[in-house]
Specification:
Elements: H1 10-24, H2 30-37, H3 41-48, H4 51-60, H5 62-76, H6 80-92, H7 98-113, H8 115-141, H9 150-171, H10 176-188, H11 199-206
Helix pairs in contact: 1-2, 1-7, 2-3, 5-6, 5-8, 6-8, 6-10, 6-11, 7-8, 7-9, 8-9, 9-10
Length: 207
């Protein structure tokens, strides 16, 4: 007699939710998520109660996930500018296609208009800003960047990354990663020490 298959964990279901959000945006159904996860819509209702509750659970993990991801990148890339290059690559994974960017923007509309979702979006944005600021602070400390207001620079980078994603989705020239790298380099270039000109693109070319 074959063993009974293990049911999907909550982590599996959240991961499936993330994939479907990228594919379909906030107008997805529980059936869509169930199909991706290999479970029934009834199972999702039993676990989470409703589509809204599942999406809120997904959104609530954003800040924690951002913190973990940035920490893992820093552990793997001690050089701050190497870490920044990997951070850019991770952001580009959020924009595999123009359609994925569109779906992300559709979900952002929910984040901006629904107080419960906005609370989690705000926490995730703050987590990203803090992590970027820490990388920039370390780059200044390492002599890679000139002394500057790293809090303001982190905000500028965060804004440039998001704007580059949308611009790439509209213009569709090159890859999302190339577009984000170009935006990041433009923001950083005036603050780089002379021997570190355009480090992100040069290091990427060697990889």
């Amino acid at each position: 007699m074959s063993p009974r298959p293990r049911s999907a964990t909550d982590e599996d279901l959240i991961a499936a939710t993330q994939r479907v959000v990228t594919q379909l945006g906030p107008h997805l159904t529980l059936a869509d998520i169930g199909k991706e996860a290999g479970v029934s819509a009834a199972t999702l209702v039993q676990r989470f109660g409703s589509k809204r509750a599942l999406l809120l659970k997904f959104a609530s993990l954003g800040a924690e996930g951002t913190h973990r991801q940035f920490a893992a990148i820093r552990n793997a890339h001690p050089d701050p500018l190497d870490a920044l290059r990997e951070i850019v690559r991770c952001y580009s994974h959020m924009a595999p296609t123009p359609e994925a960017v569109s779906n992300g923007l559709a979900f952002l509309q929910v984040d901006l208009t629904d107080p419960e979702f906005h609370r989690f979006a705000h926490a995730q944005a703050r987590a990203a800003l803090r992590a970027l600021e820490k990388v920039l602070h370390d780059a200044v400390k390492a002599g890679q960047l000139a002394p500057c207001d790293t809090e303001r620079l982190a905000f500028a980078l965060h804004s440039a990354i998001g704007g580059a994603m949308v611009a790439w989705a509209v213009l569709r020239e090159g890859t999302a990663e190339d577009a984000i790298l170009a935006a990041v380099e433009t923001v950083l270039e005036p603050r780089l020490k002379p021997h570190r000109t355009a480090p992100v693109r040069k290091q990427r070319a060697r990889g």
